[in-house]
């Protein structure tokens, strides 16, 4: 009996870090959301714009997109422009590069039934370039060590390595709404070594439901993240932290706790969301009950309200300058840059305490200013 293809490239970050999670999640229905559909819509628009720019005969999907907007159009156009730039760049490596959009990529040599769909694959001598569009705002996605991209690259090598003399793979995450274009590269030999030493044996464990459970940031999109015992044990270790003596924590102890705080908070919120859903379906948790939350008053009919207030002699509307995203949608990117380019700036971001592995440069602190004097 054939096994189901459930080791997807998109979920590889999870099942590579926690192999038995694949079997645990098997059969659990994916939860749909408007965010997922919005991403699907934008991918369809991106593919159409690139194909059209390449002179291919494609049908405009805009009328059938549920969440089409000016912002989505701008994001897709930026993606198209980037892909075309990279395609032109690939011509430096050979005279006949090829570009594939929404290409099925098979990496089943290393992962049983392993396949996925690459948003954009540009193949030329020397360099194979994988470009993946991300529409989400919530999670900043990096290309460095991105297992989804590496699986796609393996699939592209399987299909095209005999046609081109490829030595390097470039991988780009294009996340326009986060102003994130993250590109990294890996030598073909190093990618194939990772596939044999890491991907293949881990996938074999995952298929059998074997290996060790492990909690971490890869839990974020796991279907059993709220009820996973290993994740609970990992987070509860922090709760058991010995705070007895002294009465306050020193800097060393705080530094030991900091890396786990975000995961602890996320886990707690996942538990709360899961139990609320279960309680609404009839599950009773001792000591808890469902109540109606607070809400704000709303108009029953906006047009009727506006008409009534206008009749009474008042102006029911307030004027507000459009934000940068909305203004860019109104004017279009080119006209926006021409008219408002000199009137836009990017202020410093709010200070955030992050691990030293974060790629951003460190800000000056009060201690740094003191040392400089």
Automatic annotation (TrEMBL):
Q: Where is this region: Disordered?
A: 350-373
One Pfam family from the record: DUF2800
**Superkingdom of the organism of origin:** Bacteria
List UniProt keywords, sorted A-Z: Hydrolase
GO terms of molecular function = hydrolase activity
| Cited InterPro entries | DUF2800, PDDEXK-like_dom_sf
Q: What is this protein called?
A: PD-(D/E)XK endonuclease-like domain-containing protein
């Amino acid at each position: 009996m054939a096994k189901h293809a459930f080791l997807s490239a998109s979920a590889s970050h999870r099942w590579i870090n926690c192999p038995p999670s694949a079997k645990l999640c098997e059969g659990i229905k994916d939860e749909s959301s408007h965010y997922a559909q919005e991403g699907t819509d934008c991918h369809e628009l991106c593919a159409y714009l690139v194909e059209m720019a390449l002179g291919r005969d494609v049908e405009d999907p805009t009328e059938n997109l549920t969440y089409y907007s000016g912002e989505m159009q701008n994001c897709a156009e930026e993606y198209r422009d980037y892909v075309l730039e990279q395609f032109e760049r690939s011509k430096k490596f050979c005279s006949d590069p090829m570009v594939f959009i929404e290409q099925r990529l098979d990496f089943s040599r290393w992962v049983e039934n392993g396949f996925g769909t690459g948003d954009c694959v540009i193949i030329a001598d020397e360099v194979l370039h994988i470009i993946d569009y991300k529409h989400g705002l919530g999670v900043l996605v990096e290309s460095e060590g991105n297992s989804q991209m590496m699986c796609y690259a393996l699939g592209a090598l399987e299909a095209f390595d005999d046609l081109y003399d490829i030595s390097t793979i470039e991988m780009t995450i294009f996340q326009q709404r986060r102003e994130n274009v993250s590109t990294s590269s890996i030598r073909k030999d190093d990618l194939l070594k990772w596939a044999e030493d890491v991907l293949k044996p881990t996938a074999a464990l995952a298929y059998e439901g074997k290996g060790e459970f492990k909690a971490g940031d890869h839990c974020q999109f796991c279907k059993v993240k709220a009820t996973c015992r290993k994740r609970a044990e990992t987070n509860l270790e922090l709760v058991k932290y010995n705070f007895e003596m002294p009465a306050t924590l020193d800097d060393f102890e705080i530094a030991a706790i900091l890396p786990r705080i975000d995961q602890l908070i996320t886990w707690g919120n996942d538990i709360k969301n899961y139990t609320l859903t279960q309680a609404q379906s009839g599950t009773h948790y001792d000591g808890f009950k469902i109540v109606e939350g607070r809400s704000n008053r709303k108009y029953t009919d906006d047009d009727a309200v506006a008409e009534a207030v206008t009749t009474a002699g008042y102006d029911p509307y307030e004027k507000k300058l459009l934000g940068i995203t909305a203004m860019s949608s109104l004017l279009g990117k080119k006209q926006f840059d021409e008219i408002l380019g000199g009137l836009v700036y990017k202020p410093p971001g709010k200070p955030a305490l992050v691990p030293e592995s974060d790629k951003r440069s460190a800000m000056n602190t009060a201690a740094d200013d003191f040392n400089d004097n």
